[in-house]
Write a structure and sequence with these properties.
Elements: E1 4-7, H1 11-22, E2 27-30, H2 37-40, H3 71-84, E3 89-90, E4 95-101, E5 104-109, E6 113-116, E7 119-121, E8 128-129, E9 142-143, E10 156-160, H4 164-175, E11 179-183, H5 198-206, E12 210-213, E13 217-222, E14 225-230, E15 233-238, E16 241-244, E17 248-249, H6 252-258, E18 285-287, H7 302-305, H8 308-325
Parallel strand pairs: 1-2, 1-7, 2-3, 7-18, 9-16, 10-11, 10-16, 11-12
Antiparallel strand pairs: 4-5, 5-6, 8-17, 13-14, 14-15
Length: 326
């Protein structure tokens, strides 16, 4: 019987596990993919917007030779923290259901049944892209994840979106020799794009290196072409590959099976939880990290989500101490 099982082996999930262990709790982490699986899926050599001290967990220093860490720096850092803390990790094991009640939960996975007194959900949001809901979205030439530009040299590439991921992808693809068309639903590149990225993109559009269509919606994706509706009428854009970087959302189906209740007053469907303890309406079930924001995925990041671990671990340790002394 575990004291706490953490679902999700991202930075916040790891922080929850190590804070629990430091309070004498028996903890384990279950993850359907790799260690820090979302970071594994990030673009090659992606630079974090945060400085390293804001990504640290458990008091472990995050030394890097440059101002902001890269994806590869973070992968190495979180692996070293997990190893140093000797965290119990159950990787490539998918959670299916949660039965029982606080003090005696059973978590069913695709490999086993795990008994635990408490459960923390730290599943993030990066695994489920926001769909375009247009014909052809499932073609093999369409991806919701951008890795690197080099395979697209000399090709026609459509990038959909106007925020940081789309901006960086469009710029990298252009500099790697791709012919990039940027499709934006709104009237301009988003003001939320980082201040050192947005002018670069705007200038590349102005000089004609990147073709951009604003106030534009996609109507269909076909082999070799994307059909769109622009303010000037319908348009067909020749393309070899499409990056639909339209954002991501939490696994609401899994959250529902676990018993995480969404806030009916929140348009983003954020979970109902006590902000002092992060316990949901199901006693013994907690939420941590970006999943706390529901579909508003910019509410919580590693920087502020990592602090949820201390609140949750302190509450569970106190509750178990009270129970055992009763």
């Amino acid at each position: 019987m575990l004291d706490v099982l953490i679902i999700g082996a991202g930075p916040v999930g790891l922080a929850c596990a190590l804070e629990a262990q430091r309070r004498g709790l028996r903890a384990a982490v279950v993850e359907k993919g790799a260690l820090v699986n979302s970071l594994v899926g990030y673009p090659t050599n992606m630079e974090f917007f945060s400085t390293p001290e804001l990504l640290e967990i458990g008091g472990y220093p995050f030394p890097v030779s440059h101002y902001k860490p890269l994806r590869e720096d973070a992968l190495d850092y979180y692996q070293r923290v997990a190893s140093s803390e000797k965290l119990t990790l159950r990787l490539y094991e998918k959670v299916l259901a949660l039965n029982g009640e606080q003090g005696d939960f059973t978590v069913t996975t695709d490999k086993d049944e795990i008994r635990t007194r408490n459960v923390v959900v730290a599943t993030g949001f990066y695994d489920l892209p926001n769909p375009l809901d247009v014909p052809g979205e499932d073609l093999p030439t369409v991806s919701h994840y951008y890795k690197e530009p080099y395979q697209h040299a000399t090709q026609n590439v459509v990038v959909i979106g106007a925020k940081n991921s789309s901006a960086k992808a469009a710029l990298q693809l252009t500099r790697a020799g791709a012919k990039v068309t940027l499709l934006v639903r709104g009237p301009a590149v988003s003001d939320s794009v980082k201040y050192w990225i947005r002018p670069d993109l705007v200038n590349r559009i102005a000089e004609g290196r990147i073709t951009a269509h604003f106030n534009t919606t996609i109507t269909a994706i076909r082999p070799g072409a994307v059909d769109v509706r622009t303010p000037d009428g319908p348009l067909t854009i020749p393309t070899d590959f499409v990056y639909a970087l339209t954002g991501y959302h939490p696994d609401e189906a899994l959250l529902g099976r676990l018993g995480v209740e969404p806030d009916p007053a929140d348009a983003a469907r954020a979970p109902l939880f006590d902000p002092a303890t992060h316990e949901t309406t199901r006693p013994g079930l907690f939420v941590a990290g970006t999943v706390c924001g529901g579909r508003a995925t910019s509410r919580w990041f590693i920087e502020n989500g990592r602090h949820h671990a201390q609140l949750i671990a302190a509450h569970i340790a106190t509750s178990l101490a009270v129970t055992q002394s009763a």
